[in-house]
Amino acid sequence: MIHILLSRWRQGHRTMAYPKTLPALPDRFRGRPEFRPSACPGGCKACADACPTSAIVIGPNGPGIDLGKCLFCPDCTEACPEAAIRFTGDHRLAVGDRADLLLEPGSQLKRAEAMGKELMRVLGRSLKLRVVSAGGCNGCEVDVNVLGTLAWDLGRFGIQFVASPRHADGMVLCGPVTTNMALAVRKTYDAIPAPKIVIAVGACAIAGGPYLHQEEQLGGAVAAGIPVDLFIPGCPPHPLTILDGLLRLLGRIQGD
Amino acid sequence: MNDALFAPMRNGQALPLAQVPDLTLAEFRASVIQGVRSGKRLACLCADQELNLYAVLASDSEGLLWAGRTRLAQPSYPALTPECAQAHLFERELAEQFGIRPEGHPWFKPVRFHPSWVPGRDAWGRTGPIDPGVLDFYQVKGEEVHEVAVGPVHAGVIEPGHFRFQCHGETVFHLEIALGFQHRGVERALVGGPHPLSLKHAETVAGDSTIAHGWAYCRALEALAGVTVPARTDRVRGVALELERAANHTGDLGAMAGDVGFLPTSSFCGRIRGDWLNMTAELCGSRLGRDLLRPGGLRMDLDSSRARLLADRLVRAWADTRDAVELLWGAASVLNRFEAAGEVDPIQAREIGLVGVPARACGLDLDVRRDHGFGPYAAHPVAISLAESGNIHSRAWVRWLELGESQSFLRSALESLTWSEPDPRPGPLPPLAADSFCVSMVEGWRGEVFHLAITGADGRFSRYKIVDPSFHNWFGLALALRGQLVSDFPLCNKSFNLSYCGHDL
To answer: How far apart are CA A121 and CA A123, in angstroms?
Structure first.
């Protein structure tokens, strides 16, 4: 017993103060991409050609990007001859509408807003979520799981992961929804009592991720017929990105 | 000796396909069966569209791999499994992928529940839609026997899979595991590659083993392109692999503590695992090691100041880890649960071809880092961590010993990286050798990660086979449950912590 108490003393209190203060992210962290279309040479589409998921499309005003398809890999930044693209350290990426993930040149990311008044009344102070993994690589699950550890302590925001859809207010979906998981995802969704919300975590659950071309999957939650209330991009998203999204949905973080 | 018909090769070596002996079916079968009887392991058995069968036997004590192939005249052949249990899941897999029937297979069921790659040729004659997890489960009958079905969706934040227990009261007679729910077509996607997404597909075979699979893929390409990476690059890759091992072993020990209700270690380790993952993020921006590797080198180097920073963080992470994990070995309530359950018999472990932590927990002395040396492990050798009892305690203990070894490796590798300069960025890889056969293995934190790349006349993959250690080890979990209490399943499962997506591909 004395050893346990001594360890407890040595390990100390390590729950981060977020959202009061922001924990330091590594300098190589790749958050929201930013373009400088003025630097783009005319007719250049090196970034679009390099993007393995065709997330970048060159429009009349320069390159635009679909953050839902983006894997946040450095293929585009390495291909760009003019350093016109960079990944910023901005981890706040979650949006409420799929269309908001399409960033046109010069447009600002419209981040997720708090859910409607009635949903806030029912779920705002206690949000129980059922996590369903449907064909990804387990990477998103790793970063969702970590929110339950003492360092993040998700419980202090009234959010908890539960073991049954019957106990849940919503579903967190990871993975592109494989053909083999389509029925289980549907049954889980149907088993959650209304009102309910769905959170799509990661590139797979939004648009199929690295598997977008594979016939073995459906291309994410929306394509599988599941309505989504919160889209959290990344491959996988950083835990801070996921938490930021959840807190925006609950109105605990607003604006920039 | 029949297995001498196979050709010897090394881990990370590319052979012209013509040098992989094309044997008669009888010679091929005898070579595999004799080879395994004489102590080799069946690291891989697979097929392709053209009805070729390929086998790679690992001879761990001599550090050699033995490869051979045969061309079937028709889509069926006498199964190897009745004489070689290690072929069991491989034969089910190749039947499902190419509609080839291993006749006389004693456990002939689908693996991942997908249609055959060859339209119109299905090993089970199925034509309609395939229902995942629906199969003829082994059943025990009797008045007091009951069946417990769990999954595909589980109670935690965990991947899907279906478990079917045959129980008598609390006692498990038999557990059958049906997977395939995570099947997203990784191997099929790699055919015709390398594609722009191929490295991503390798990195996401199992997201928690990004470096292990990513490295195996990169080494296969480097061997096929005839490129040798500088020693410093290998050292940085080794740092990433050992950080991955340390993070996952720490997380596993914490999760096992949680399953026996020992909260101090469980709580501390949950957090400390994050500290290890954040060190990987310091290296490449991603906690899972995404985009660190590229065929031919690295996308981001570990310069000396960053190495110094990591060396400092290593000291703190290791002190915290040791403090948290050592509590386990002094807690009678933990040891009691760990020692009482989940035993795998070492003879059975060898027979079914277990790899990685569960194998070493049974005293099987194998580790790719030593036996089939790659990367920096000649310059920075690691001691192989073994235990004897094959139970949950042994699997926890092996993880603990390996954590210590990873820590010493990291200390010495980071130290040497602080006084060397980064390599110049590698140029694009030359074209891959045509008509070649290359095996690349890495010891990931779960065990042997095996990649086999076969190129066609155009220098592109005609077949790319991946064997995650989980593919060998899921059957070990089923064996570990025999005669145990069904309530010990979560703990037992955690002590293996196998990958669903790595198995399902």
So the answer is: 6
Nearest chain B alpha carbon to A185: B153
| CA separation for the pair A79, B159 (Å, rounded) | 35
Q: Do A71 and B200 touch (CB under 8 A)?
A: yes
Choose from A78, A90, A137, A240 for mutation: most chain B CBs within 10 A.
A137
Give the 3-state secondary structure of residue B259. Answer: helix
Q: List, for residues B36-91, the tens digit of each pLDDT value.
A: 999 999 999 999 999 999 999 999 999 999 999 999 999 999 999 999 999 999 99
Residue in chain B lying closest to A3 (CA): B327
Contact A139 B204 (CB under 8 A): yes
The pair of structure tokens assigned to B126 is 């199925």
Angstroms from A119 CA to nearest CA on chain B: 24
pLDDT, tens digit (0-9, with 9 covering 90-100), for B432-487: 999 999 999 999 999 999 999 999 999 999 999 999 999 999 999 999 999 999 99
The DSSP result for A16-36, as a single string, is --TTSSPPPPPTT---SEEE-
Report the predicted TM-score, pTM, of the whole model to 2 decimal places.
0.96
- Phi-psi region at B447: left, alpha or beta (left = phi > 0; alpha = psi -120 to 50): left
Contact: A144, B157; criterion CB under 8 Å: yes
Q: For chain B, what percentages of helix, strand and coil (3-state, to nearest 5) are there?
A: 45, 15, 40
CB contact under 8 A, B327 and A132: no
- pLDDT classification of B276: cutoffs 50, 70, 90: very high
Contact B340, B491 (CB under 8 A): no
Of B152, B157, B285, the CB nearest to A141: B157
Contact of B227 with B430, CB cutoff 8 Å: yes
- Whether residue B210 and residue A139 make contact (CB cut-off 8 A), yes or no, is yes
CB contact under 8 A, B196 and A52: yes
| DSSP of B169-224 | TTEEEEEEEE--TT---HHHHHTT---TTHHHHHHTSSGGGHHHHHHHHHHHHHHH
Residue type, B336: N
